[in-house]
Specification:
Distance between the termini: 17 Å
Strand content: 5-15%
Number of domains: 2
Order of helices and strands: EEHHEHEHHHHHHH
Radius of gyration: 18 Å
Shape: globular
Number of strands: 4
Helix content: 40-55%
């Protein structure tokens, strides 16, 4: 677990090895974190995670009222994987940016709910299979990665788990 200082530096909060990525193990881990935090002084403002359902399902129970966002990089990576499967495109760039008027980039970066809805309609018209997949796999989580919704959360620009991935890489090395 990694935190961010007001000077935008990363710091290690906790590190743990758990046997499986189960709700039970995540609950234990998060309770240990909560027990070691003075929540009146240092309660987290937001958690940014990948779509690890065991973790997501326990966050609200252990840290009620703390916002949760999904890592936009992981969301885009998963969606690009499906795009490769459906359309055999060469790269995320070709899928996300191909048509700036109705591409995925316009959907995920919509600044207002109205702009999001309009971008989604345009995107869905041209990419029905893709929009069906996104709706099924990510629809219930849209408020955790679409810009117009995440901008309502105090995240100070932290919308990806790259800081944690970097720390994880160092620990593995």
């Amino acid at each position: 677990m990694v935190g961010v200082t007001p000077t935008v530096s990363s710091f290690l909060i906790a590190c743990s090895m758990i046997p499986t990525e189960s709700e039970e193990n995540y609950k234990w881990l998060l309770k240990k974190l909560a027990d070691n935090l003075d929540v009146t002084e240092a309660s987290p403002c937001v958690f940014v995670t990948d779509r690890e359902l065991g973790l997501i399902n326990t966050l609200g129970a252990v840290f009620p009222g703390v916002d949760h966002l999904l890592c936009r990089w992981h969301v885009n990576k998963a969606i690009n994987g499906k795009a490769l499967e459906f359309y055999r495109t060469n790269s995320m760039k070709s899928f996300i940016i191909t048509n700036p008027e109705d591409g995925w980039n316009k959907v995920i970066n919509a600044l207002t709910e109205q702009a999001f809805r309009h971008a989604w309609v345009c995107f869905s018209r041209k990419r029905r299979r893709m929009s069906d997949y996104i709706q099924r796999a990510w629809g219930e989580h849209a408020g955790k990665f679409i810009l117009c919704y995440t901008n309502e959360v105090l995240h100070l620009g932290n919308t990806a788990t790259s800081r944690v991935e970097s720390a994880h890489s160092l620990l593995k090395a």
